[in-house]
Write a structure and sequence with these properties.
The protein contains three helices and no strands. By secondary structure, the chain is mainly α. The longest helix has 134 residues. The chain starts with a helix and ends with a helix. The relative contact order is 0.02.
Length: 184
């Protein structure tokens, strides 16, 4: 790296051939270089900058035109909406006037249908109560029957001895045999 720097520094010590030479004084060359670069930029960049500004101006004007058109459309839609609102308000007033009689009719219909529903519910309630009463009566009957049967079996078992028990079993087996022959 040092060799490259030395070669540029050594260029500054060459004897000048006429008016051409390399000036290595940074403070003297910077303003000159900047003015040359700015001059070239202004000369060649003026058209590009002008085109960019014109395009930007056109886009802004188009945006303004579009905004104006949208605003006019919005105003038209607002007027149409206001007209529809007035029409709906008039219809609402008409419905309000006509609606009171319909409300009264619907109220009477609702009262009638509700009373019918209540009557049906009352019937269902009575049927359910009757069913539950019958079920409770049947359960009580079954319990009474089971308790009577257990009491009879208990009495029978306590009074039967083995011989009497065997004779009862034999008699019942004989009865079942006769019943079987009858059914066959």
């Amino acid at each position: 790296m040092k060799n490259v720097t030395d070669s540029f520094v050594s260029l500054g010590h060459w004897p000048s051939a006429g008016s051409f030479g390399v000036n290595t004084d940074i403070l003297a060359t910077n303003p000159i270089n900047l003015s040359v670069v700015l001059g070239v930029l202004i000369f060649f960049g003026k058209g590009v900058l002008s085109d960019l500004l014109d395009n930007r101006k056109e886009r802004i004007l188009n945006t303004i035109r579009n905004s104006e058109e949208l605003r006019e459309g919005a105003i038209e839609r607002l007027e149409k909406a206001r007209a529809r609102l007035r029409k709906v308000e008039m219809e609402a007033d008409q419905f309000r006037v006509n609606g009171y009689s319909e409300i009264e009719r619907e109220k009477l219909n609702l009262i009638n249908s509700t009373s019918k529903i209540l009557e049906q519910l009352e019937n269902y309630k009575n049927e359910t109560i009757f069913f539950e009463q019958q079920r409770a009566i049947n359960q009580v009957r079954q319990r009474v029957f089971q308790q009577a049967l257990q009491g009879a079996l208990g009495t029978l078992n306590s009074s039967l001895n083995t011989e009497l028990h065997l004779r009862t079993i034999s008699a019942n087996i004989g009865l079942f045999g006769v019943m079987k022959e009858i059914t066959d």
